[in-house]
Amino acid sequence: xxxxxxxxxIVMFSMFGLSAISAVSLPSTASAQVADGIKTATxxxxxxxxxxGPNGLIKSVVNxxxxxxxxxxxxxxxxxxxxxxxxxxxxxxxxxxxxxxTYAVVGLIVAIFAWAIVxxxxxxxxxxxxxxxxxxxxxxN
Length: 141
Hints:
The chain has 141 residues and is mainly α. Helices cover 72% and strands 0% of the residues.
């Protein structure tokens, strides 16, 4: 069973790797064709809405998720503090509260790094957001 899973994963990763290499090596006219296809498929309801930019879908989703993870982390930090206070010196309860606090702080740090990575990737691919000033080379509107 392990050999089948290993073989399937090797085949899957090599197919994804080949598709990523072929996507990178596309000619420059491919991006123009994609932009034309997007422009053709855009309906009147979709006008003046973008996936990128200061009010785009990517930024909105990332901000909502970062906000939710931040609120959840703060709630868990408060909860673990209350558990630590009410442990009354019990070693198991104290250790449990400390591990909850550790995981909440690590979750908050991971969320901040995820936000930074998303902004870095958007900057590298040329999407303009409020945190970077790079302009996209392909106009989608």
